[in-house]
Write a structure and sequence with these properties.
It contains five helices and 21 strands. By secondary structure, it is mainly β. The chain has two domains: 165 residues, no CATH class; 137 residues. Strands 3, 4, 8, 9, 13, 15, 16, 18, 19, 20 and 21 form an eleven-stranded mixed sheet that branches. Strands 7-6-10-11 form a four-stranded antiparallel sheet, with no helix packed on it. A three-stranded antiparallel sheet has the order 2-1-5.
Length: 342
């Protein structure tokens, strides 16, 4: 009968909601702690998942449906030790909470036990850098792991508009500037386009949002092509229309549908991730998150998972150039410009 042990893994964009398995048919099994946490100085609440691998003979997936298989019993002594410029400043004791949002799947659902704190974390400045050591007292030993905090008050969107005008189709990609985040190893960039949609003459207008993923941008590449002390990512206007066409259905719209564009319909979202998170994603072949990757690579000494940091910068921007008139003129799409609402 196969000897299996399961390792709990979690996605980045929907934290603490997925899993993967790792098979070891030969080595002697040793229970290992599994830690997943991304600290964010902008967040009201920071969460850490503390769980463990487990061993079974037979159908490991059935055992995984039982939360006692991967949870440590009771409440562990878990805390964050805060460092400023290398000096210990304070300790933050983590409390526990049970969330009930996990979709059914391989592992138990919908409840998940997490450790958390609502204490504000430090914010990086050029002369003041924060890091946090996670300290967990396990039944068999004390586990520690450390994360450098990402971000700072200078981090954020710099450009005020995006331009999807057709004159730039198939031309060199358009530039967008943002200020770097201290301690970041990579950035994930996305845009969202929100408009109001009215499907019947007497019906209410409801907001709809199209999301456009522009991918990863690595610190090592961005730092070589800075402009005005800012990093630059690039986008292609024709790809915006391709994504929008799929979202609204091209010319197959219901007759009479109207879509209203305001002054600031686009939101740019830039997520800065710490260097440890970059290494974890790269080595486990994941896409911006904890997912079903190769768990042989870990950044937790004596365990699995990753403990790192991130920070998100968001900004609403205008549609520049001829973008709005061209959208309004597109046959069958039903766009109208109404202005207002940032």
């Amino acid at each position: 009968m196969k000897r299996l042990y399961l390792v709990f893994c979690l996605p980045f964009m929907v934290l603490f909601s997925a899993c993967s398995t790792d098979v070891d048919l030969y080595a002697d099994y040793k229970q290992a702690p599994i830690i997943y946490g991304l600290l964010d100085a902008n967040a009201d609440t920071n969460f850490v998942k503390i769980t463990r691998s487990f061993y079974v003979e037979g159908d490991a997936y059935q055992v995984a449906l039982n939360p006692d298989s991967s949870n440590y019993s009771g409440k562990l002594d878990a805390r964050l030790v805060e460092y400023c410029n290398g000096d210990s400043v304070r300790e933050i004791v983590l409390d526990t909470i049970t969330i009930r949002k996990k979709e059914p799947g391989v592992f138990y659902a919908p409840a998940q036990k997490l450790y958390y704190t609502t204490e504000p974390l430090g914010r990086n400045w050029s002369h003041r850098r924060y890091s946090y050591k996670l300290k967990v007292v396990l039944p068999e030993r004390v586990l520690t792991t450390k994360a450098e905090l990402v971000g700072g008050d200078g981090y954020g969107v710099q450009s005020l508009a995006v331009n999807f005008s057709q004159e730039y189709f198939h031309a060199p990609a358009r530039r967008f500037l943002f200020r770097p985040a201290l301690g970041a190893g990579f950035y994930h960039v996305s845009m969202s386009f929100t408009f109001l949609e009215q499907r019947t003459q007497d019906g209410d207008s409801v907001p709809r949002t199209m999301n456009w993923d522009l991918g990863y941008w690595y610190e090592s590449d961005l730092s070589t092509t800075m402009e005005e002390n800012c990093y630059v990512f690039r986008y292609r206007p024709e790809l915006f229309y391709s994504v929008l066409r799929d979202f609204v259905g091209d010319d197959t719209l219901v007759e009479g549908v109207h879509r209203y564009i305001t002054d600031y319909p686009v939101e740019v979202c830039i997520v800065a991730g710490g260097e440890k998170l970059r290494q974890y994603i790269y080595n486990n072949n994941t896409e911006l998150g904890f997912s079903q990757g190769d768990t042989e690579f870990s950044l937790i000494d004596g365990g699995y998972g990753v403990f790192s940091s991130r920070m998100t910068a968001r900004s609403r921007v205008r549609l520049a150039g001829e973008t709005v008139p061209e959208l309004v003129a597109m046959r069958g799409w039903g766009f109208k410009f109404i202005g207002g609402q940032k």
